[in-house]
Amino acid sequence: MTNLGSRNYERNRIARGTRIFREGEQGGFAYLIERGSVEISSMKNGSKIVLDTLKDGEMFGEMALIDYRNRSATATALEDTDVIPFDRAQFEKIIESADPILNMLLRVVLKRFRWALQQVLEKERFMLTGEYNPGGQTQVFDAARNQAILQIKLDRDIRYALQNQEFLIYYQPILETHSHRIAGFEALIRWNHPVKGQIPPSDFVSAAEESDLIVPIGQWILEQACSDLRKLQDTDGDPSPGAPPLFMTVNVSPRQIAHLGNTEVLRKILHDAGIKPGHLKLEFTESMLIHSPELAARALADIQKLGVSLAIDDFGTGYSSLSYLHRFPLDVLKIDRSFINMMTKDNGSRQIVEAIMGLSKGLSLQTVAEGIESLESLAMLKALGCDYIQGYIASKPVPLSAALDLVRNRTDLLASHSPLREGLING
Ligand code: C2E
Ligand code: CA
Ligand code: CA
């Protein structure tokens, strides 16, 4: 029943009594039961053996997806049942990116599982009672199955979230260190889940990367952040003559880089929003440079040619920090929060921050320190000549409306009475 799977992740209603697939058929889909029940059965010597009855939240049909063999059983809807189909292409994308040992383990476990199933089916008592003992499955298999189910559900939820506009962007001010002036913002994604409330990016960004959903999400973020930057620039109440316009910084995941390397996409986004390329900065991490250096170097050079700035994020946390720096076109270096946090307590961290600042200056890069929470580290960074600062000391990420207020009133976020700091540095 390939038609059942042709529209991925859309809920499919299967009428009671429908055979979803038959024993012996080739299988291109696995299914997650959203609501309803499905009978898994097998024919032996002309009589039907019920192997299992599966209910909400359970998965079936995954075996043929993993080992390419024909269906070892027949699946039938026992009532009107909603399923989410999951196709081989999606599955293979996950397998490809999985650790090779995990990949091998999965296939070995599956082979044993098939073999065990076969043994069970051979036994006469089975044919008599028609019962199946699911305890025969290994715990490893159950755990892998549960994990897969969670992943597929999250994937499906992210897809819906994109369609239903559950994502929104918060903006965290980035301040010029010497003047305290708000120079720009970093766009940070938030997910307003209708049931679970606000979900932080750490809980879904990597899942969105795994499934490549980060590409459409990332495109949406860029469009939204650029059009919001237009509003912020238009609202900017900075009275000083010649003050540079506000910039916007957007995080880019490794999977997006090939997409953005086609600079037509970026060009159109900037044009539609009415934003100068120089006012957009893209942030990426070392992992992108390490995994596909040639592709990254080419794409980044094209993006920079367009006039968009490039920032390296979380600097110092990767592996090869120094060896690659000169090989990539870069404009900004962001010192990771972990060093900033430690620099007032630990002399070693302070030395690292100083060394990074020196390196950054030597390469003519602008330096941003992120995650500043104390006046003490702020003072140190000022003394070291860090160009920009970002952190709870000035403001947490805020919704657009609050960001607009900040630039309209040109609030000094580092003034001792700043409302956004209340409870953050003293609390
Ligand atoms: P990041 O790019 O390093 O972003 C900075 C994170 O540090 C943000 O967390 C921010 O809220 C937090 N932060 C800022 N100042 C402070 C501070 O003073 N103290 C502490 N403790 N934290 C501070 P958030 O918003 O939860 O984002 C986490 C990560 O998720 C980001 O780390 C980034 O890697 C990823 N992310 C967020 N938005 C996007 C996005 O639109 N696209 C992509 N690809 N990744 C995103
Ligand atoms: Ca960032
Ligand atoms: Ca960072």
Compact description:
The chain is an alpha/beta fold. The chain contains 17 helices and 17 strands.
Please describe what this structure looks like:
The chain is 43% helix and 22% strand. It is α/β, with parallel strands linked by helices. The protein has an 8-stranded mixed β-barrel, surrounded by 4 helices. A 4-stranded antiparallel β-sheet has the order 1-8-3-6. Strands 2-7-4-5 form a 4-stranded antiparallel β-sheet. β10 and β11 form a beta hairpin. α8 packs parallel to α10 and α8 runs parallel beside α17. The protein is elongated and about 90 Å long. The site of one calcium ion has 4 residues, from loops.
Would you spell out the secondary-structure blueprint of this structure?
Layout: H1 2-5, E1 12-14, E2 19-21, E3 29-35, E4 38-44, E5 47-54, E6 59-60, H2 62-67, E7 74-77, E8 81-87, H3 88-97, H4 100-122, H5 124-129, H6 139-163, E9 167-176, E10 182-193, E11 197-199, H7 205-210, H8 214-235, E12 247-251, H9 257-261, H10 263-273, E13 280-284, H11 286-291, H12 293-305, E14 309-315, H13 321-324, E15 332-335, H14 337-342, H15 347-362, E16 366-370, H16 375-384, E17 388-390, H17 400-409
Parallel strand pairs: 10-12, 12-13, 13-14, 14-15, 15-16, 16-17
Antiparallel strand pairs: 1-8, 2-7, 3-6, 3-8, 4-5, 4-7, 9-10, 9-17, 10-11
Helix pairs in contact: 8-10, 8-17
The structure holds ligand C2E and calcium ion (CA) (2 copies).
- Could you give the order of strands across the largest sheet? 9-10-12-13-14-15-16-17
Bound molecules: ligand C2E, calcium ion
Give the distance, in angstroms, between the N- and C-terminal Cα atoms.
60 Å
Helix content: 40-55%
Helix count, DSSP H or I runs of 4 or more residues? 17
Contiguous low-pLDDT stretches (5 residues minimum) are 1-9, 124-137
Rg (CA only): 27 Å
What is the structural class? alpha/beta
Number of strands: 17
Strand content of the residues, in percent? Answer: 15-25%
Oligomer: single chain
- pLDDT averaged over residues: 84
Shape: elongated
Largest β sheet strand count, sense and barrel closure:
8 strands, mixed, barrel
